[in-house]
Design a protein that fits this description.
single chain; alpha+beta; 14-stranded mixed sheet; three-stranded mixed sheet; globular
Length: 348
């Protein structure tokens, strides 16, 4: 008997994402989402197989919701236990709704939850869900804006002001305080504000720092673990510059247009300069309810430069088609969009 084909990680993540959405608290949205889920399952046999292995969760979550009358405390307790015992894996977070995923913590295998829906996101002090933007004033007067699917923890006391970015992107306007340095920490490094305004974006085990005003200093996680002082071996990043921080180190400094970045945050735009189409679709996926499905191999090698609205992903997708006539976008349901190459006379 042939061995059963393993389900690829990306398909397993998509299936789990659909399951979480199908257990949403809004009955109307659940009903609308179901048609998208059914269409997604028909795209490939492995989709249906992955969905079947998780679909029983839907009924069980609904049972938990009914028996607890929406009380999330049992799920929170289970989640904290999993967090204490787990390996604290920080894999990429797909679109999710925090409260619903907490409920799933009672039902999904612990390793699966830790990999697909990081507990650190679910337990964060501040977080946003799909398509949500929030601006908060912190205790010291600092203002931070979180875009879609972002999460931070706050560590403020009489000696320090530290913001831990778990995932997503934030715009920080730092309030002046000579007695307490302002730090942003991620798994990849530590950023100390020496000025007022900058953007930190963390996705796929990479922290991207974009400085809009004044300057900041950066230490990698390795330097921090080795006990280097904040003012030693630090990299200074000035206004109009950007760097990427990974486990391997820090990239070369890039020059950016600060006005363009500021406008992008103000108007909720995605500004793309010579980036792969697949990265653009992934970013739109973070801001869209439902799923944009594509074959990475088919779209490989297509780069683009464009400005897209993140708060209107339907319009953004139409702009992609207008900019790239070689692609085709089909909306099977409001919650499932297919992107592929447009058919030509040779392959029709």
């Amino acid at each position: 008997m042939p061995e059963k084909q393993p389900i690829p990680d990306d398909i397993a993540e998509q299936a789990a994402d659909w399951i979480v959405r199908l257990t949403a608290g809004d009955a109307t949205e659940r009903e609308q989402m179901q048609s998208g889920f059914e269409a997604w399952k028909k795209l490939h046999p492995l989709h249906a197989e992955a969905a079947t292995s998780l679909q029983q969760v839907i009924g069980r979550v609904n049972e938990v919701r009914a028996t607890t009358h929406g009380n999330p405390e049992p799920a929170h307790a289970a989640l904290k236990a999993a967090l204490a015992e787990g390996n604290r894996s920080r894999r990429r977070l797909r679109k999710t709704v925090a409260t619903l995923a907490v409920a799933c913590a009672l039902l999904l295998p612990a390793w699966q939850l830790l990999q697909i829906y990081p507990p650190a996101y679910l337990m964060a002090d501040l977080r946003t869900t799909t398509g949500q933007w929030q601006t908060h004033s912190l205790p010291d007067g600092t203002r931070i804006t979180l875009n879609s699917i972002s999460a931070v923890n706050l560590h403020f006391d009489t000696e320090r002001r530290t913001l831990e970015l778990i995932t997503g992107a934030i715009l920080v306007d730092v309030a002046h305080d000579t007695d307490r340095p302002f730090l942003v920490e991620t798994a990849e490094g530590r950023i100390q504000a020496l000025g007022t305004r900058f953007v930190v974006d963390r996705h796929e085990q990479t922290t991207t720092l974009t400085v809009l005003e004044s300057k900041v200093s950066v230490q990698t996680a390795r330097q921090r673990m080795e006990g280097a002082e904040p003012d030693q071996e630090s990299i200074l990043v000035q206004a109009g510059e950007r760097i990427h921080i990974t486990a391997q180190g820090v990239s070369a400094i890039e020059t950016i247009d600060t006005r363009t970045i500021s406008d992008a945050w103000q108007y909720r735009h995605l500004v793309v300069q010579n980036r792969p189409l697949t990265e653009v679709l992934d970013e739109l996926n973070r801001h869209r309810r439902g799923h944009i499905h594509y074959d990475p191999a088919q779209l490989q090698g297509i780069d683009m430069a464009v400005v897209l609205p993140l708060d209107d992903t339907d319009r953004a997708l139409q702009l992609l088609v207008d900019s790239l006539p070689m692609i085709r976008i089909r909306t099977l349901t409001p919650y499932l969009v297919l992107v592929d190459l447009a058919p030509t006379s040779e392959n029709r």
